[in-house]
Amino acid sequence: MKLILLIMLVALLIPLYEAWQDDNIWQKMLAFASIATKTSIMILIVSILQDDWMIGVVGVLILSVGNAGLMLLAHVIKRLNDLSQTL
Q1: What would the pLDDT profile of 44-59 be if each residue is shown by its tens digit?
Q2: What is the pLDDT of residue 34?
Q3: Nearest to 64 by CA among 35, 32, 37
Q4: Would you say residue 34 lies in a domain?
Q5: What domain count does the chain have?
Q6: How many CB atoms lie under 10 A from the CB of residue 21?
Q7: Which of 11, 13, 15, 60 has the fewest CB atoms within 10 Å, counting from its CB?
């Protein structure tokens, strides 16, 4: 179990490294969405292994709601950047 979680934690670092190299806001937001998805999958795996459905509910909420808010924030930031470039 610990080996699987360690491998998943290493997989979390890959999008962070890619986002750190690029200045594009969409790349950074997609990297953070990927991290949120991977984290929620990790939470779901832990909840299955520990047989605790309350932890699983939190994982499902992060999976379903977290990415939508992040993409909305990315769209607002992009619109602000477009507006500032036209002025």
Answers
A1: 888 898 888 888 888 8
A2: 79
A3: 37
A4: yes
A5: 1
A6: 7
A7: 13
